């Protein structure tokens, strides 16, 4: 508010224990601090408070915004100029001006001149008798309407401050909006401290800011104003910032960096994931030397911290690891909810199942280099469930003296032994000899390639370090995962008995043993096997469990056995037909009761044979797929 100059008279009071003398250095300097903890968030109106010997919420509405910019200057010499930089393109939402001074005669000065405008302030702290006959007071004014601050660099001339003892300085706080979200919390008032005085003047009251937790780390920014710190002298002081149970102390933080006896400081602190509060306190402290501790007046403290993310925020990066022979992909999610990723090489999907990444988490995916990847750009990409796509294209240039070692076959079998095949290639002009664990040295001529089989049990992790001349080293590592049986079930209805045929198919590259109801069958690669289980009419719904070395707990849900009603319906609606037999594929191993043959189990009556077929599906963690539940009637 702009108004004619005048001084507001307020009664002076001396707190209990206030000293009669002033803490002095040879230059007779006292310290006043304006501390503002600034983060990047919107301002909401707060209840009237301010405070004397404790900071409180402002007694005026505070604008919402994206961040805060600050500036300030000492005012021993007037006019003085303070500068404040607002991000280009931002909108200025609110401009608050603070000033503080000490007086021992007359009244504190409630007005100040900024850019030729006389501004009347509101007393937000004090007057408080601090030392001797000297008192301190703090004023604040909202000068937004003057239009003095705009995006970019701003210089504001201030003058007309007339405290009788000392004009310590002024600071400007600008709230701006650049379109991003932020939560800003402001406390202001007057909180004096000198460690050698009696309470409450010996220290300040810590200010604790609370906020919603986030699944990821965040950054908060602290902007602090300090007035009356002796220029050119060491007056020990500190700022303690406590977050996540850990306190960081910034020593001798205030040092008149904005002009004689005024500081404008800024620090950023990390707010760990899950943390919900931050505490800041300005301190007058000794440092174990003859230096006199600082005395100061804490005027304001502001915290700005990013709000917790709401949805998933996916990201992905890739890094070539030549010694390991891989491209390491890191899938990240800095959001507030989980998401999934798929990883592709061109159009080839590399992961069997979506890769889940929790809120605030990361997951690693490894692409094993192939023999033909050398000296090419591998077109890797990651696609998140959100639709975000990340180009992870990687130039592969790993050959040393023309030598290469890559994984050629991750699911090899040699003489009935499972393992992998590593391709050793030599693109140089001279023969090179490779050292391979468990094998004799392998010499590969120029322009040649030799494939080496290395035994690895199914499901086992492996790591083979391969070395060669010229310091060549490659590590081939991974887990052999080559058995991928799929589980399907059919429920068969017949006139003289019922049963369940469970068909197991294997889409893997080698046979996989499966056990169901005490019987074990080896399901050939690309083939299938069947298990028969007897069930009676009206048997309740049940769950079958099949096991395989890579899939220890495969659940198959069967519905209530209901065959007679289906049979009766079929007999009244279907003409008699000759019974048929379905022949199993050549790769099928069929096990049925002695009296029943074939994969379609049926009994005939009055020339009619009927079966109710139920398919069940479920994807297990181990990769076994159960085909989805459905029913169909077949007449035979």
Distance between the termini: 95 Å
The main sheet comes to:
6 strands, mixed
Structural class: mainly beta
Number of extended strands: 47
Give the overall silhouette: elongated
What does it look like?
- By secondary structure, the chain is mostly beta strands.
- Helices cover 2% and strands 50% of the residues.
- It is built from one helix and 47 strands.
- The strands form 13 sheets. Strands 1, 2, 12, 14, 17 and 19 form a six-stranded mixed beta sheet that branches.
- β20 and β21 form a beta hairpin.
- The relative contact order is 0.10.
Question: Can you summarize this structure?
Answer:
2% of the residues lie in helices and 50% in strands. It is mainly beta and 636 residues long.
């Amino acid at each position: 508010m702009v108004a004619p100059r005048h001084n507001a008279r307020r009664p002076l009071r001396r707190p209990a224990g206030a000293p009669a003398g002033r803490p002095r250095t040879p230059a007779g300097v006292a310290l006043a601090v304006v501390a503002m903890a600034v983060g990047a968030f919107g301002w909401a109106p707060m209840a009237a408070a301010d405070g004397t010997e404790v900071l409180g919420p402002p007694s005026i509405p505070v604008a919402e915004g994206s961040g805060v910019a600050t500036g300030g200057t000492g005012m021993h010499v007037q006019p003085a100029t303070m500068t404040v930089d607002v991000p280009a393109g931002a909108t200025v939402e609110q401009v608050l001006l603070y000033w503080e001074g000490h007086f021992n005669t007359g009244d504190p000065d409630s007005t100040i001149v900024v850019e030729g405008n006389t501004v009347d302030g509101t007393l937000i702290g004090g007057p408080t008798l601090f030392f001797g006959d000297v008192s301190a007071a703090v004023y604040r004014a909202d000068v937004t309407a003057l239009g003095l601050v705009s995006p970019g660099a701003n210089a504001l001339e201030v003058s007309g401050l007339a405290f009788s003892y000392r004009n310590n300085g002024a600071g400007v706080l600008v709230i701006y909006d650049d379109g991003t979200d932020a939560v800003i919390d402001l406390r202001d008032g007057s909180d004096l401290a000198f460690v050698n005085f009696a309470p409450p003047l010996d220290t300040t009251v810590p200010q604790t800011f609370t906020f919603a937790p986030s699944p990821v780390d965040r950054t908060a920014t602290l902007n602090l104003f300090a007035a009356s710190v002796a220029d050119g002298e060491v007056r020990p002081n500190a700022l303690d910032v406590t977050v996540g149970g850990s306190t960081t102390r910034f020593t001798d933080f205030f040092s008149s960096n904005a002009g004689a006896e005024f500081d404008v400081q800024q620090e950023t602190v990390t707010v760990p994931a899950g943390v919900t509060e931050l505490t800041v306190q300005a301190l007058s402290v000794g440092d174990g030397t003859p230096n006199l501790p600082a005395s100061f007046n804490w005027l304001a403290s502001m915290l700005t911290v990013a709000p917790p993310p709401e949805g998933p925020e996916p990201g992905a990066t890739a890094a070539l690891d030549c010694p390991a022979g891989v491209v390491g992909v890191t899938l990240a999610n800095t959001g507030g909810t989980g998401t999934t990723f798929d990883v592709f090489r061109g159009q080839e999907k590399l992961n069997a199942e979506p890769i889940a990444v929790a809120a605030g988490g990361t997951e690693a995916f490894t692409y094993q280099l192939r023999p033909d990847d050398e000296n090419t750009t591998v077109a890797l990409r990651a696609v998140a469930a959100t639709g975000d796509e990340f180009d992870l294209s990687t130039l592969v240039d790993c050959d040393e003296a023309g030598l290469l070692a890559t994984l050629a076959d991750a699911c090899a079998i040699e003489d009935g032994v499972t393992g992998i095949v590593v391709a050793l290639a030599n693109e140089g002009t001279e023969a090179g000899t490779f050292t391979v664990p468990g094998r004799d040295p392998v010499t590969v001529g120029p322009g040649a390639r030799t494939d080496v089989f290395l035994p690895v049990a199914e499901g086992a992790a492996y790591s083979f370090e391969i070395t060669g001349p010229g310091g060549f080293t490659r590590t081939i590592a991974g887990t052999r995962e080559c058995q991928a049986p799929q589980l399907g079930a059919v429920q068969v209805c017949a006139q003289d008995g019922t049963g369940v045929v469970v068909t197991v198919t294997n889409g893997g590259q080698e046979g996989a043993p499966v056990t169901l109801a005490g019987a074990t069958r080896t399901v050939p690669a690309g083939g299938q096997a069947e298990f028969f289980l007897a069930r009676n009419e009206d048997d309740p719904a049940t769950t079958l469990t099949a096991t395989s070395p890579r899939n220890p707990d495969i659940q198959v849900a069967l519905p209530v056995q209901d065959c007679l009603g289906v049979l009766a319906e079929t007999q009244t609606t279907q003409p008699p037909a000759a019974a048929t037999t379905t022949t199993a594929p050549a790769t099928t191993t069929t096990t049925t009761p002695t009296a029943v043959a074939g994969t379609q189990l049926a009994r005939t009556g009055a020339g009619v044979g009927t079966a109710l077929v139920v398919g069940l599906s479920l994807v297990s963690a181990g990769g076994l797929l159960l085909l989805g539940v459905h029913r169909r009637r077949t007449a035979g």
